[in-house]
Design goal:
Two copies of one chain form a homodimer.
Chain A (H helix, E strand, L loop, with lengths): L13 H8 L3 H8 L10 H14 L5 H8 L4 E6 L8 H13 L3 E6 L2 H5 L6 H4 L5 E5 L6 H9 L4 E4 L7 E4 L1 H14 L5 E6 L7 H16 L5 E5 L6 H5 L3 H9 L8 E4 L2 H13 L9 E6 L11 E4 L2 H17 L8 E3 L2 E3 L8 H4 L1
Parallel strand pairs in A: 1-2, 1-3, 3-4, 4-5, 5-11, 6-7, 6-8, 8-9, 9-10
Antiparallel strand pairs in A: 10-12
Chain A binds a DNA duplex through α2 and α4.
Chain lengths: 357, 357
Amino acid sequence: MTDGANTRPARVTAATIAAHTGLSRATVTHVLNGRGTEQRIRRDTQERVIETARLLGYRPNASARALHTGKTGNVALIQSLMGAYLPERLLLGLTEALGENNMYLTLAEVPDSVLDEQSYLPKILREHTADGLIINRIVGIPDTFVEAVNSLNTPVIFLNVNRPSDTVYPDDYNGGKLAANYLVSLGHTRILYVGPTIGTDYHYSQIDRQRGYRDAMKEAGLPTQEFSLPPNPETEEQIRNDSRVPILRSYLEPRLQRPTAIVAYEMAESMAVLHAVNQLQLQMPQDISLVMFHHQMDQRFCVPITTLCNGMQQVGREAVNLLLDKISAPGTSFPSRVVPIELLRGVTCGPPPSLCR
Amino acid sequence: MTDGANTRPARVTAATIAAHTGLSRATVTHVLNGRGTEQRIRRDTQERVIETARLLGYRPNASARALHTGKTGNVALIQSLMGAYLPERLLLGLTEALGENNMYLTLAEVPDSVLDEQSYLPKILREHTADGLIINRIVGIPDTFVEAVNSLNTPVIFLNVNRPSDTVYPDDYNGGKLAANYLVSLGHTRILYVGPTIGTDYHYSQIDRQRGYRDAMKEAGLPTQEFSLPPNPETEEQIRNDSRVPILRSYLEPRLQRPTAIVAYEMAESMAVLHAVNQLQLQMPQDISLVMFHHQMDQRFCVPITTLCNGMQQVGREAVNLLLDKISAPGTSFPSRVVPIELLRGVTCGPPPSLCR
DNA sequence: TTGAAAGCGTTACCAC
DNA sequence: GTGGTAACGCTTTCAA
């Protein structure tokens, strides 16, 4: 009486159901896995099994199944989470596509220190926890790390870096072209590219977006104009004397020769542009147009900025597809997949002022 | 020769090592689990085992261990990823703290549709995949869902909602007080609170931050002034006629009675403030001060805005601790834990203009 | 239609 | 010091 109705048995397994129904474990799993009819198990038996499972609150044990099938049903996402690039859309794309394949995403943080230590592998790689690995945007991955990972028997793909194979990343080069072409198509001829100052450990997109812009301008027979935003100031002193917006402002100040449109590398540059534009009392898009690269149309800025969207959700989905391909053909190398960058129209672009007058 | 050196055996298990070393599986696992000395296994035997494991590229099978121990070593994070609140700091806190306990975070996206359907549980909850569940910031969770989750035998905690028990969330009420008090301490007396328009499915922080502000102002004997930013415009028509910044500007326009400081609910409100301030050619912080709630000091805005940081990393860590407590004491209910909100000084605050003159 | 049994890789208890 | 052996929960093949 003390233990009967209220204390549910700690674990309800297929065996429990078998015992309750007086059937064998095999029959129970057959029914539970939808193979009941195929196995020509009586209708009412099937219903009895299912009802009992429901009543008992049966939940299959993933580890046991994994042990038998040799597949964990998990994919691990590896990255240094400190300073990570992990847009929600990317996670959404990954989990969606994995979910469609009855798999899950396991997040593994890899401290930067680990990446430096020669041949030290993070714990998640030292055991057999996932069916595949996704390595996200680790800039300047040490070769030793890549080698160590490859020596694992686990399929691996890379994300958001530009490697020739087994990688998924956005087409930043054509994104750059798209940006410039779009502004050209609106009638702009003086288009300024605002990017970050490119240091030693740069990301490929810093090069590619700018290259795309340059090539598109050249093709249109227009001159390029580029401005590298100095890095974020660090000390408070530097912050108070932050010269980034003033410098940028000087680019936009001259009445006649000022750019009529801007391509910004990402949000940081866009914000500087917005500040400068505001300070100069310019109207957007009447006086000046702006496009930026981002992973979505971001509504938090009050002004929806026309965005070159790097399709992180799609990147996530493609990554899963690629990884599943690799899992089913272990050892094979696949060419990298490039995801197109799309233009999302905000309200920051229009024809150049000269054409309006 | 075809199969010898190049084709590595598909799976290296403890048995493989046992075979290679001529020892029993038990001895091998003893050594591998660091129980070698305790079991008084010869030094050289131990070394032989470890070396062989390394050579063979042995990686323990997590599923097998899980099956035996009854612990998967995984914690599932449940949420609707569409429109999710998932700051990187939160993930960092979660994965860090889990990592310290040799556990991993499994991300499970739960489509909104699923939450609505009565009693339908997402797949990850229908099987035994994780040792515990973290439910993150699902606003307006249907009671049926909570019930269904509770009927599972799996420990569950909530994140970023304000439930009385088994929950971790930032102390937004005291954050609101802190914001106001800080500005008061700088000498401000006309402090405007800018929040979102509170709809039907609001988040507790929308109430709490504002309440904190109000109470602090009352305690300081100062009048409150509040402005609800209308929701983001949706159609392009609405966007072009976006009246949010102009309206806000009208609050800041009058020379004498205008607020000298602003508490912004979050980034969206801050951006509107920055735009309005820029358009009015006001200097920040000379003419007006600004603090906002956010999950970190964000360097992308060019101006580092003084931030009330809701400590998502800490929230993540506390969440893991709470969940581990629940896992080791199943069925117990723990009081919710509130994580203090911290003030991170940016460059947007200073004394009010009147005191400068 | 149903049941018996083997095996997945690990752990841990208990003999030797 | 070392080596059997059972058990974890599930899947699947083969027999009945």
